[in-house]
Amino acid sequence: MTAPVDIDRVAGIIREVAAAEILPRFRNLTAGQIREKLPGQLVTEADIEAERVLTLRLAEILPEAACVGEEAVAATPALLSLLERPGAVWVIDPVDGTSNFAQGLTRFAVILALVVDGVTRIGWIYDPVSGRMTIAEQGGGAWEAGQRLSVLPGGPLATLSGSVKRSARLSGRVAKVGRKGSAAHDYLDLVHRGLHFAHFRRLMPWDHAAGVLIHAEAGGYGRMIDASPYRPRFDDGALLLAPDESCWSALRALLLG
Protein backbone atom coordinates (compact mmCIF):
# COMPACT_ATOMS: atom_id res chain seq x y z
CA MET A 1 0.00 0.00 0.00
CA THR A 2 1.50 3.30 -1.05
CA ALA A 3 -0.30 5.35 1.59
CA PRO A 4 -2.17 4.62 4.83
CA VAL A 5 -5.94 4.47 4.58
CA ASP A 6 -8.22 6.04 7.19
CA ILE A 7 -10.65 3.16 7.70
CA ASP A 8 -13.21 5.27 9.54
CA ARG A 9 -13.11 7.98 6.87
CA VAL A 10 -13.90 5.38 4.23
CA ALA A 11 -16.73 4.05 6.40
CA GLY A 12 -18.09 7.60 6.61
CA ILE A 13 -18.02 7.94 2.84
CA ILE A 14 -19.94 4.68 2.47
CA ARG A 15 -22.59 5.89 4.90
CA GLU A 16 -22.89 9.26 3.15
CA VAL A 17 -23.24 7.70 -0.29
CA ALA A 18 -25.84 5.24 0.95
CA ALA A 19 -27.81 8.07 2.56
CA ALA A 20 -27.68 10.21 -0.59
CA GLU A 21 -27.92 7.67 -3.42
CA ILE A 22 -29.41 4.41 -2.11
CA LEU A 23 -31.90 4.96 0.70
CA PRO A 24 -33.89 7.74 -1.04
CA ARG A 25 -34.50 5.33 -3.94
CA PHE A 26 -35.42 2.37 -1.72
CA ARG A 27 -39.10 1.53 -2.33
CA ASN A 28 -39.26 4.61 -4.57
CA LEU A 29 -37.94 3.22 -7.86
CA THR A 30 -39.94 3.77 -11.03
CA ALA A 31 -40.05 1.18 -13.80
CA GLY A 32 -37.57 3.29 -15.78
CA GLN A 33 -35.03 3.12 -12.94
CA ILE A 34 -34.78 -0.70 -13.08
CA ARG A 35 -33.50 -2.72 -16.00
CA GLU A 36 -32.07 -6.13 -16.78
CA LYS A 37 -28.39 -5.80 -17.67
CA LEU A 38 -28.03 -9.55 -18.30
CA PRO A 39 -30.66 -12.30 -18.26
CA GLY A 40 -31.76 -12.59 -14.65
CA GLN A 41 -29.52 -9.75 -13.44
CA LEU A 42 -31.09 -6.44 -12.48
CA VAL A 43 -29.46 -3.04 -12.16
CA THR A 44 -31.11 0.06 -10.73
CA GLU A 45 -30.39 3.76 -10.74
CA ALA A 46 -29.22 3.34 -7.13
CA ASP A 47 -26.51 0.85 -8.18
CA ILE A 48 -25.24 3.13 -10.93
CA GLU A 49 -25.25 6.39 -8.98
CA ALA A 50 -23.86 4.91 -5.75
CA GLU A 51 -20.96 3.33 -7.64
CA ARG A 52 -20.28 6.54 -9.55
CA VAL A 53 -20.10 8.64 -6.40
CA LEU A 54 -18.13 6.05 -4.43
CA THR A 55 -15.56 5.90 -7.22
CA LEU A 56 -15.13 9.68 -7.13
CA ARG A 57 -14.95 9.88 -3.34
CA LEU A 58 -12.51 6.98 -2.99
CA ALA A 59 -10.15 8.67 -5.44
CA GLU A 60 -9.78 11.41 -2.80
CA ILE A 61 -8.60 8.82 -0.27
CA LEU A 62 -6.09 6.94 -2.43
CA PRO A 63 -5.56 8.71 -5.77
CA GLU A 64 -3.20 6.06 -7.12
CA ALA A 65 -5.68 3.22 -6.65
CA ALA A 66 -7.73 1.76 -9.47
CA CYS A 67 -11.44 0.96 -9.09
CA VAL A 68 -13.20 -2.25 -10.07
CA GLY A 69 -16.93 -1.78 -9.59
CA GLU A 70 -19.68 -4.18 -10.53
CA GLU A 71 -21.42 -1.75 -12.86
CA ALA A 72 -18.19 -0.47 -14.42
CA VAL A 73 -17.20 -4.06 -15.22
CA ALA A 74 -20.64 -4.72 -16.71
CA ALA A 75 -19.87 -1.92 -19.17
CA THR A 76 -16.14 -2.69 -19.59
CA PRO A 77 -15.29 -6.30 -18.68
CA ALA A 78 -11.55 -5.74 -19.22
CA LEU A 79 -11.47 -3.78 -15.95
CA LEU A 80 -11.41 -7.10 -14.09
CA SER A 81 -7.79 -7.53 -15.22
CA LEU A 82 -6.78 -4.70 -12.87
CA LEU A 83 -7.01 -7.23 -10.03
CA GLU A 84 -4.25 -9.29 -11.62
CA ARG A 85 -1.78 -6.38 -11.55
CA PRO A 86 0.37 -4.99 -8.71
CA GLY A 87 -0.93 -2.00 -6.81
CA ALA A 88 -4.03 -0.91 -4.94
CA VAL A 89 -7.56 -1.53 -6.22
CA TRP A 90 -10.90 -0.58 -4.71
CA VAL A 91 -13.49 -3.31 -5.33
CA ILE A 92 -17.04 -1.95 -5.17
CA ASP A 93 -20.46 -3.56 -4.98
CA PRO A 94 -22.72 -0.50 -4.65
CA VAL A 95 -25.90 -2.48 -3.91
CA ASP A 96 -25.40 -6.15 -3.19
CA GLY A 97 -28.78 -7.85 -3.37
CA THR A 98 -30.15 -5.66 -6.17
CA SER A 99 -33.12 -7.94 -6.78
CA ASN A 100 -34.11 -7.65 -3.12
CA PHE A 101 -33.62 -3.87 -3.27
CA ALA A 102 -35.77 -3.59 -6.40
CA GLN A 103 -38.54 -5.60 -4.71
CA GLY A 104 -38.46 -3.42 -1.60
CA LEU A 105 -36.87 -6.13 0.55
CA THR A 106 -34.35 -5.02 3.17
CA ARG A 107 -31.71 -7.70 2.58
CA PHE A 108 -29.20 -5.58 0.60
CA ALA A 109 -25.92 -3.88 1.46
CA VAL A 110 -22.88 -1.97 0.21
CA ILE A 111 -19.65 -3.96 -0.06
CA LEU A 112 -16.22 -2.39 -0.42
CA ALA A 113 -12.76 -3.95 -0.35
CA LEU A 114 -9.26 -2.59 -0.72
CA VAL A 115 -7.06 -5.09 -2.54
CA VAL A 116 -3.31 -4.50 -2.67
CA ASP A 117 -1.02 -6.64 -4.83
CA GLY A 118 -3.74 -9.25 -5.18
CA VAL A 119 -4.53 -9.55 -1.45
CA THR A 120 -7.57 -8.11 0.33
CA ARG A 121 -6.26 -5.79 3.04
CA ILE A 122 -9.45 -4.13 4.30
CA GLY A 123 -13.14 -4.94 3.88
CA TRP A 124 -16.32 -3.03 4.69
CA ILE A 125 -19.93 -4.29 4.58
CA TYR A 126 -22.63 -1.73 5.31
CA ASP A 127 -26.32 -2.45 5.78
CA PRO A 128 -28.01 0.92 5.11
CA VAL A 129 -31.36 -0.11 6.58
CA SER A 130 -30.04 -1.13 10.00
CA GLY A 131 -27.01 1.18 9.92
CA ARG A 132 -24.66 -1.73 10.74
CA MET A 133 -21.08 -1.25 9.51
CA THR A 134 -18.85 -4.32 9.70
CA ILE A 135 -15.13 -3.83 9.03
CA ALA A 136 -12.03 -6.03 8.98
CA GLU A 137 -8.39 -5.21 8.37
CA GLN A 138 -5.94 -7.99 7.61
CA GLY A 139 -4.47 -9.14 10.91
CA GLY A 140 -6.67 -6.82 12.96
CA GLY A 141 -9.89 -8.77 13.52
CA ALA A 142 -13.45 -8.12 12.42
CA TRP A 143 -15.39 -5.38 14.17
CA GLU A 144 -18.74 -3.66 14.41
CA ALA A 145 -19.46 -0.64 16.62
CA GLY A 146 -16.35 -1.28 18.70
CA GLN A 147 -17.18 -4.94 19.31
CA ARG A 148 -14.95 -7.71 18.02
CA LEU A 149 -16.84 -10.35 16.08
CA SER A 150 -16.43 -14.12 16.02
CA VAL A 151 -17.97 -16.97 14.08
CA LEU A 152 -20.12 -19.63 15.66
CA PRO A 153 -18.24 -22.65 17.01
CA GLY A 154 -18.24 -25.77 14.90
CA GLY A 155 -20.04 -28.97 15.74
CA PRO A 156 -21.58 -32.09 14.22
CA LEU A 157 -22.97 -31.62 10.71
CA ALA A 158 -26.52 -32.18 11.91
CA THR A 159 -26.27 -29.04 14.07
CA LEU A 160 -25.01 -26.69 11.35
CA SER A 161 -27.00 -24.07 9.41
CA GLY A 162 -25.77 -22.59 6.16
CA SER A 163 -26.38 -20.63 2.99
CA VAL A 164 -26.25 -22.79 -0.12
CA LYS A 165 -27.95 -22.26 -3.48
CA ARG A 166 -28.26 -25.90 -4.45
CA SER A 167 -28.63 -27.96 -1.31
CA ALA A 168 -29.75 -31.46 -2.40
CA ARG A 169 -26.50 -33.08 -1.23
CA LEU A 170 -26.83 -31.44 2.19
CA SER A 171 -30.55 -32.11 2.64
CA GLY A 172 -31.15 -34.11 5.78
CA ARG A 173 -27.46 -34.03 6.72
CA VAL A 174 -27.31 -30.52 8.21
CA ALA A 175 -29.76 -28.59 10.36
CA LYS A 176 -30.85 -25.97 7.82
CA VAL A 177 -29.89 -24.51 4.44
CA GLY A 178 -31.24 -21.72 2.27
CA ARG A 179 -30.33 -18.55 0.40
CA LYS A 180 -31.92 -15.10 0.51
CA GLY A 181 -30.34 -13.15 -2.32
CA SER A 182 -27.47 -11.20 -0.74
CA ALA A 183 -23.90 -12.44 -0.31
CA ALA A 184 -23.24 -9.45 1.95
CA HIS A 185 -25.94 -10.57 4.39
CA ASP A 186 -24.68 -14.14 4.29
CA TYR A 187 -21.28 -12.83 5.40
CA LEU A 188 -22.92 -10.68 8.07
CA ASP A 189 -24.84 -13.70 9.32
CA LEU A 190 -21.63 -15.74 9.46
CA VAL A 191 -19.89 -13.24 11.75
CA HIS A 192 -22.99 -12.28 13.72
CA ARG A 193 -23.49 -15.93 14.62
CA GLY A 194 -26.60 -16.55 12.54
CA LEU A 195 -25.00 -19.04 10.12
CA HIS A 196 -22.28 -21.67 10.46
CA PHE A 197 -21.31 -22.02 6.81
CA ALA A 198 -21.82 -20.74 3.28
CA HIS A 199 -21.10 -22.10 -0.18
CA PHE A 200 -20.84 -19.92 -3.29
CA ARG A 201 -20.27 -20.60 -6.98
CA ARG A 202 -19.15 -18.37 -9.86
CA LEU A 203 -17.35 -15.83 -7.73
CA MET A 204 -17.30 -12.15 -8.58
CA PRO A 205 -14.74 -10.18 -6.56
CA TRP A 206 -17.16 -7.45 -5.44
CA ASP A 207 -19.39 -10.08 -3.82
CA HIS A 208 -16.66 -11.85 -1.84
CA ALA A 209 -13.36 -9.96 -1.41
CA ALA A 210 -14.50 -8.08 1.71
CA GLY A 211 -16.61 -10.90 3.13
CA VAL A 212 -13.92 -13.57 2.96
CA LEU A 213 -11.55 -11.28 4.87
CA ILE A 214 -14.21 -10.40 7.46
CA HIS A 215 -15.02 -14.09 7.96
CA ALA A 216 -11.35 -15.03 8.34
CA GLU A 217 -10.69 -12.20 10.78
CA ALA A 218 -13.67 -13.39 12.85
CA GLY A 219 -11.95 -16.77 13.20
CA GLY A 220 -13.60 -18.63 10.32
CA TYR A 221 -12.01 -21.06 7.89
CA GLY A 222 -12.55 -20.58 4.17
CA ARG A 223 -11.06 -22.12 1.03
CA MET A 224 -11.98 -22.78 -2.54
CA ILE A 225 -13.58 -26.21 -2.89
CA ASP A 226 -10.27 -27.54 -4.31
CA ALA A 227 -8.63 -26.44 -1.00
CA SER A 228 -6.72 -23.55 -2.57
CA PRO A 229 -6.87 -20.10 -0.92
CA TYR A 230 -9.46 -17.60 -2.11
CA ARG A 231 -8.14 -14.79 -4.28
CA PRO A 232 -10.07 -11.56 -5.01
CA ARG A 233 -10.75 -12.02 -8.72
CA PHE A 234 -13.34 -13.65 -10.96
CA ASP A 235 -13.35 -17.41 -10.44
CA ASP A 236 -15.72 -19.92 -11.99
CA GLY A 237 -15.12 -22.37 -9.15
CA ALA A 238 -16.72 -22.71 -5.72
CA LEU A 239 -15.95 -21.25 -2.30
CA LEU A 240 -16.77 -22.87 1.04
CA LEU A 241 -16.68 -21.06 4.40
CA ALA A 242 -17.06 -22.82 7.75
CA PRO A 243 -16.32 -22.30 11.45
CA ASP A 244 -13.13 -24.38 11.37
CA GLU A 245 -11.09 -26.73 9.20
CA SER A 246 -12.79 -29.86 10.55
CA CYS A 247 -16.28 -28.61 9.66
CA TRP A 248 -15.00 -27.36 6.31
CA SER A 249 -13.62 -30.81 5.43
CA ALA A 250 -16.85 -32.58 6.45
CA LEU A 251 -19.00 -30.14 4.47
CA ARG A 252 -16.69 -30.38 1.45
CA ALA A 253 -17.02 -34.17 1.44
CA LEU A 254 -20.82 -33.85 1.36
CA LEU A 255 -20.81 -31.21 -1.37
CA LEU A 256 -18.48 -33.22 -3.58
CA GLY A 257 -20.57 -36.31 -3.06
TrEMBL record:
User: What is the protein name for this chain?
Assistant: Fructose-1,6-bisphosphatase
UniProt-listed InterPro entries: Inositol_monophosphatase-like
Which Pfam families does the UniProt record give?
Inositol_P
- Family membership, please give it: Belongs to the inositol monophosphatase superfamily.
Entry keywords, A to Z: Magnesium, Metal-binding
User: One GO molecular-function annotation for this sequence?
Assistant: inositol monophosphate 1-phosphatase activity
**PANTHER family in the cross-refs:** INOSITOL MONOPHOSPHATASE, INOSITOL-1-MONOPHOSPHATASE-RELATED
Reading the lineage from the top rank, the first entry is: Bacteria
Binding of Mg(2+) 2, residues: 93
